[in-house]
Amino acid sequence: MSAFHQLVLPGLGGQELPLAPFGDKLTLVVNVASQCGLTPQYAGLERLHQQYRERGFSVLGVPCNQFAAQEPGSDEEIRAFCSLNYGVSFPLTGKLEVNGPQRHPLYRLLAGEGADFPGDISWNFEKFLVDRDGRVLARFSPRTSPDDPALIQAIEAALP
To answer: Which of 66, 67, 77, 114 has CA atoms 20 to 30 A from the CA of 100?
Structure first.
């Protein structure tokens, strides 16, 4: 099992969210926030999740409050916001640190020293495409919308 799939993340509400079940999925990991100018990307992320999930694809939303405190809510507030405003059905973790000394192991793996696409996360809605083997195939900037042709092409190329 890959290092990615061995991780167990905090889920919204305090339960554990193991990544082992994502071993049979192509996963788009996205750090998200509810009060960001890019927050409307939730709608596109949900469309991607719905469009490709039957082919073994999932979005994984990672709430983060490190960028201008744009995710201040509690787990329940985040869940309610995502559900009511965007109908989010993809999994969401509890809030994680994506940069700095408290960077969560998930982001050390995705963007830390020795990663295929190293470097600090620049803002909310940065995206990493992770294959079934736990390899990061691509990294997309926060401004890359979920319907961007390059992102769609990367997803389709990696799906069966």
So the answer is: 77
Q: Could you tell me the pTM of the whole model?
A: 0.98
Query: Tokens in use for 83?
Result: 């559900």
Q: Would you call 82 a catalytic residue per the annotation?
A: no
What is the token pair recorded at 130? 């992770």
Q: How far apart are CA 65 and CA 32, in angstroms?
A: 9
pLDDT tens digits, one per residue of 61-115: 999 999 999 999 999 999 999 999 999 999 999 999 999 999 999 999 999 999 9
Q: Which residue pairs from 78-85 have beta carbons closer than 8 angstroms and sit at least 24 positions apart in sequence?
A: 78/12, 78/34, 79/12, 79/13, 81/34, 82/34, 82/42, 85/42
Q: Choosing from 36, 78, 130, 151, which is the catalytic residue?
A: 36
**For the range 4-9, what are the long-range contacts, defined as Cβ-Cβ under 8 Å and sequence gap of 24 or more?**
4/106, 4/109, 4/130, 4/134, 5/134, 7/105, 7/106, 7/109, 9/62, 9/93, 9/94, 9/96, 9/104, 9/106
What is the β-pairing status of strands 26-32 and 57-63?
A: parallel
Tokens found for residue 25: 């999925």
